[in-house]
Amino acid sequence: MALHDTAGPDVTANQSLNTKDLRRVLGSSLMGSIIEYYDFILYATAAALVFDKVFFSNLSPAVALFASFGTLAVGYVARPLGGIIFGHYGDILGRKKMLVISMLMMGFATIAIGLLPTTEQIGIAAPVILVMLRFIQGISVGGEWGGATLMALEHAPASKRGFAAAFANAGGPAGGLLATLVVSLVSSLTGDQFLVWGWRIPFLLSAVLILVGMVVRLKVAETPVFQALESKAADKQKKQKTPLLKVITGYPRLVIITLIASLGFYTMQGILTSWGVSVAVGEGVDRSFVLNIKGLAAVVTIAACFAAARLSDRFGRRAVLAVGGVAGALWAFPALQLMHSGNPWDFALAVVVGNGLIQGILAGPIGAYISEQFPPEVRYTGASLAYQGAATLGAGFTPMIATGLVVLGGGSYGLVGVFWVTILVLGLVAVLMSREGADSQQSKIQLRSQRKQQSA
Question: What is the CATH number for 169?
Answer without folding.
Answer: 1.20.1250.20
